[in-house]
Amino acid sequence: MYINEYQFDVIQTVLLLIILIFLITNRLKVFIKLFKRTIIISIHGFSKLFPKSNRIVIFGSENGNGFRGNPMYIFLEMVKNPEIRCIWIAKSESIVRNLNERGYEAYLANSRRGIYYQLRARLAIHSHAINDDFNNRFLGGVISYNTWHGVGLKKVWGANKKTYSYKVINEKSRLKRFFGMLVVRTNLGKKSYVVSTSEKVTSYYPETFLTSNKRILELGQVRNDVFYQETDEDLQIPKWYKDNNVILYMPTHRGKGKLDSNVNEVFNFEELNHFCEEMNVKFVFKRHMYSEGNVPTRYQNIIDISNETFDPQFLLKYAEMLVTDYSSCYTDYLLLDRPVVFYCYDLTNYLKSSNEMYHDYFDVTPGPRPKEFSGMLDAIKESLENPSIYANERKRVLNIFYSKQNQGKVLEKQVNYIYNNLLK
User: Fold this and answer.
1) Which of 272-281, 292-301, 362-371 has the lowest mean pLDDT?
2) Across the chain, what does the average pLDDT equal?
3) Is 249 found in the same domain as 217?
4) How far apart are CA 183 and CA 347, in angstroms?
5) Rounded distance, CA 237 to CA 86, Å?
6) Spatial distance between the Cα atoms of 1 and 35, rounded to a whole number of angstroms
7) Mean of pLDDT values over 11-36
8) Residue 8: per-residue pLDDT
9) Rounded (10°) CA dihedral 14, 18, 23, 28
10) What 8-state DSSP symbol labels residue 422?
11) In this structure, are 275 and 176 located in the same domain?
């Protein structure tokens, strides 16, 4: 097709405009990002000027969208103290409404009162990053007490090469590193304490959470106290779950769902249902929020409770066996000394594409590691018939992740530490 001179000029002009718009847009995006970060750093700096009260403690968990985990149990204990004002900060209106109805003080992170108490609190107790559980720009000068939410294999935060924190810390340019650290520090407390579970875990937490070794506290995971006692929460677990021999499947995510395989590709549900009938068990799916695909509902022995709000610790408590892959849930489950099957169907790809690990996967997974569906069924059958087959390995790995003094109830010693050392 012939293009005359006029048409050529028009095409050239359009292309130049597209290139110009692209350059301006990219520069605008960079400017907006820098502007937002400057605002956050500035507000965070000014928030340090607000007087802090030792009588005000804020709590948050689950990325601001839950009332669960280690912070919840500490909250429920500390709220009994009339000298301490315990306030739950959330990013979910339903969480705030539910807690208010139960008589607890709770506010949205961006509400007027929520902002005020974040500015005034001396101590922030949480399970994820400060910017996940709270509005971090208002927490300058706060003491951070990070209970974390498990004892996992994957490297996170400052130890994970894919994160902003890691890239800033290892930035060669001093100027970029200086300004980058201003951003990173908005996610840290004036003093940042992190709860560990063993000497081994403590060894890699300072690098992970960007704090000093003396602020890593080997005080255990409070949420595991439910393994050793009966509470009102036990009543929330359905009778059918308690009365049956349940095999609980709890996998982790792969790149927040980007690398997940459809559940129908890794399970033969017809065969699984028949297997469960033969072995007199129920196979219960509690999948990660990023999991792909749907579990069919037509099978009597296969139940998907992924959309239910049951506390995972109670599901673990009443499960006869755990099937997982790379999820940190198994380290908690080891406290119960029951069989674990590691269905690692994508192990090679996972190790290549996911986060690096703190440990050699094969050294700290005390159970069979089938890569095929049929192998998983064989491993489950073997473990049902002989639950003690990997008992010695389970004990060895448990002692890596949990020191002896943390293999039991730990709530009391954590609360005492908070009163005596952080609030004084």
Assistant:
1) 292-301
2) 90
3) no
4) 35
5) 28
6) 48
7) 63
8) 45
9) 120
10) I
11) no
